[in-house]
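lol forgot to send this yesterday, sorry. C-alpha cells for the thing we talked abt
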C-alpha cells in the first residue's frame, strides 16, 4: 500500500518507514525537518514540506494515490509546551486540522494517530487503562487530547476510520543499527544518559527527587520503538479489515524510576554516569504506567522487548557503534523541489 507518513524523518516515524519498506509497502514521507533528520530515512519517497501546506498535501495525496495516513508530526517536549503553548497548538492542532481537511477532500479515510499518555494527567490509578479520565496537566497533553476529539468528530461527520495509539515512553533502536533515537536539542532521558556515558563529561540532571514514588523520582513505562511499529501494523490491518475505531495504550505495564533507568544504563554500558539533582520541571506527572491489555486482546499485540535492560541494550548499541549519525544510510531523494 501507499502510506503517507507525516513526520516520518523523526525518531518513531523513521522506524515506521523502515518497517513499511521491510514489509513491501511504499512510504511517502512528509517532514519539514524542524525536528527530523533525513539521514534516518532508509528509503521511500521523501517530500520536504509541512502538513500545514494544503496545496502540498493535495498534490501528494493525488500523485501518490495514498491509501492511509500515519501521523507522527507533533512537537513533543512537555517543558517547552508550558513555556510556549501557542507553538504547540499551532503545530500539533492547527496542522493536524489541515492534514485531516486534505484527507477528507481527497477521499482518504484511514488514519492512525500517535497520541500520548500525557492525555491522562496525574493518574487516579495505575496501571492506566484507556477509560481512565483524561485531564492533561500540560499544553502538550492538551493538544493531543484536542486532536483525539477532533478525530472522533471527523469520524462521525465524514466517515473517517481511525486508530489512536497512546504511547507511553518510546525508547530503544532498531537492531539493524541504521537508525536510533536522536533529537536536536536532546531532552529524552535514555539518549541523554547514553551520550553522557559516551562523552564522559556531561552530567545527567534528575528533575525532582520528592515525588511520591519509592525513590522520589518519576516513574515511566518504556516501550521499544519497534514494538510501537508492530502496533501500527496491527492498527493498519485492523482498519483494512473494518475494525471499529479504537483508542489503545502502548506500554509494557511496568514503571521504572529515573534513578533505576540511570542504574540500568550504567550496567549496560559499564560506565559510571555523573548525576546532578535538580528541581521539578513544570508539567511532569509522577507516575505514568500503561494498562495495555486492550490492544493485546483486540489486535494481538505482543511486545518483543518487555524489559528495560533489553531496550537499553539496543539503544546503547546504536549510540556506541554509530556515534549518532556517523554511519552511512540511504538518503531519499527530496521530491519537493
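and heres what i got for the seq, position by position
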Amino acid at each position: 500500500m501507499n502510506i503517507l507518513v507525516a513526520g516520518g524523518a523523526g525518531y518513531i516515524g523513521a522506524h515506521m518507514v523502515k518497517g513499511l519498506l521491510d514489509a513491501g509497502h511504499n512510504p511517502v514521507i512528509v517532514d519539514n525537518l524542524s525536528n527530523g533528520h533525513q539521514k534516518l530515512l532508509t528509503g521511500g519517497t521523501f517530500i520536504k514540506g509541512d502538513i500545514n501546506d494544503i496545496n502540498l498535501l493535495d498534490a501528494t495525496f493525488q500523485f501518490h494515490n495514498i491509501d492511509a495516513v500515519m501521523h507522527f508530526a507533533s512537537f513533543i517536549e512537555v517543558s517547552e509546551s508550558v513555556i510556549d503553548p501557542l507553538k504547540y497548538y499551532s503545530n500539533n492542532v492547527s496542522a493536524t486540522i489541515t492534514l485531516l481537511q486534505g484527507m477528507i477532500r481527497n477521499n482518504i479515510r484511514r488514519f492512525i494517530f500517535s497520541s500520548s499518555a500525557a492525555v491522562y494527567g496525574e493518574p487516579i490509578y495505575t496501571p492506566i487503562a484507556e477509560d481512565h479520565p483524561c485531564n492533561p496537566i500540560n499544553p502538550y497533553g492538551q493538544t493531543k487530547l484536542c486532536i483525539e476529539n477532533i478525530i472522533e468528530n471527523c469520524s462521525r461527520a465524514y466517515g473517517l476510520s481511525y486508530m489512536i495509539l497512546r504511547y507511553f515512553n518510546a525508547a530503544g533502536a532498531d537492531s539493524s543499527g541504521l537508525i536510533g533515537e536522536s533529537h536536536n536539542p536532546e531532552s529524552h532521558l535514555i539518549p541523554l544518559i547514553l551520550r553522557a556515558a559516551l562523552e564522559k563529561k556531561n552530567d545527567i540532571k534528575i528533575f525532582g527527587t520528592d515525588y511520591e514514588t519509592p525513590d522520589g523520582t518519576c516513574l515511566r513505562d518504556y516501550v521499544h520503538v519497534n514494538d510501537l511499529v508492530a502496533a501500527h501494523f496491527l492498527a493498519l490491518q485492523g482498519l483494512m479489515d473494518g475494525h471499529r475505531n479504537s483508542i489503545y495504550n502502548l506500554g509494557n505495564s511496568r514503571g521504572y524510576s529515573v534513578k533505576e533507568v540511570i542504574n540500568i544504563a550504567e550496567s549496560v554500558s559499564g560506565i559510571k554516569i555523573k548525576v546532578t539533582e535538580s528541581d521539578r520541571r513544570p508539567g511532569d506527572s509522577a507516575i505514568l504506567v500503561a494498562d495495555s491489555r486492550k490492544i493485546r486482546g483486540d489486535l494481538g499485540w505482543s511486545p518483543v522487548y518487555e524489559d528495560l535492560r533489553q531496550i537499553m541494550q539496543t539503544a546503547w548499541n546504536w549510540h556506541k557503534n554509530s556515534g549518532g549519525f556517523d554511519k552511512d544510510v540511504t538518503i531519499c531523494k527530496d521530491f519537493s523541489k
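The two ends are 25 Å apart (CA to CA). anyway ping me if u want another try
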